[in-house]
Amino acid sequence: MLFYTKDLSYSHPGQPLLKFPDIQLQPAESLLVLGQSGSGKTTLLNLLSGLLSPASGLIHLNGMELTGLKGDQLDLFRGKNIGIVFQKPHLLAPLTVKENLEMAHFLAKTSGQAIPALLDELGMGAKLNASVQTLSEGEAQRVSIARALVNSPKLILADEPTSSLDDENTERVINLLKQQAKKIGAALVIVTHDQRVKNHISHFIEVKTS
Ligand SMILES: Nc1ncnc2c1ncn2[C@@H]1O[C@H](COP(=O)(O)OP(=O)(O)OP(=O)(O)O)[C@@H](O)[C@H]1O
């Protein structure tokens, strides 16, 4: 199994314990994380990316136990193996598209995928040297997807990646995420409320407060 979790739980200070359903994903498999507002979806993504440390449970990715890694080791493992797409693109405004992607290579200490070819696949080849401040919202989100993919991660995590996009860009972003997960053999986990995304991916877990 490429990616699995077992008996994960977490409690924010002073808050009740959140318990999460187990996840099991093979390469190129996609999973939606559904649940009401406040149920713990973002918390789960933060656990899966190692940004939070669980109260109990295991997170296993590509033969490594994530919960056993700390500090620099964890940062490096995350940079190489986990790509994260946020609700908003969070690009570095003073830099070009290419420089934003080079930064991801630099932080993970890897040369990863070739940037111009990846941008071409995402329909963004012409914007290689554009300042990110000149991009439309859909374009900026595609660059943030390129940034998440540039190190060919084994796990792609996306938190409401389509919530500010129109129907055409939503379709495009979901198809790109699925195609790329297939190409690089990654598992894909998407947190969403978006019915348009649910139409494309049938496998889901539901996070509930107990
Ligand atoms: N830093 C924090 N400190 C204390 N409580 C927190 C913190 N972050 C989240 N919580 C609480 O933990 C619970 C889960 O929050 P989380 O953001 O994971 O939910 P969510 O399902 O992603 O919600 P939404 O769909 O509204 O984004 C909520 O009750 C929230 O108030």
| Overall body shape | globular
Distance between the termini: 28 Å
Strand content: 15-25%
Q: How many domain units? A: 1
- Give me the Rg, rounded: 17 Å
| Count, helices | 7
- Look at the structure and name the CATH superfamily: P-loop containing nucleotide triphosphate hydrolases
Instruction: Outline the low-pLDDT stretches.
Output: none
**How many strands, what sense, and barrel or not for the largest sheet?**
5 strands, antiparallel
- Strand-pairing-aware structural class: alpha/beta
Mean pLDDT equals: 93
The helix content is 25-40%
Secondary-structure element series: EEEEHEEHEHHHEHEHE
Describe the structure.
The structure is a single chain. The protein is built from seven helices and ten strands. Helix 2 packs across helix 3. The mean pLDDT is 93. The strands form two sheets. Strands 1, 2, 3, 5 and 6 form a five-stranded antiparallel beta sheet that branches. It has a five-stranded parallel beta sheet with strand order 7-8-9-4-10, sandwiched between helices. By secondary structure, the chain is of the alpha/beta class. It has a single domain, classed as P-loop containing nucleotide triphosphate hydrolases (Rossmann fold, 3-Layer(aba) Sandwich). The site of adenosine-5'-triphosphate has 11 residues, from helix 1. The site of adenosine-5'-triphosphate (ATP) has 11 residues, from helix 1. Keywords: ATP-binding, Nucleotide-binding. One of its GO terms (cellular component) is plasma membrane.
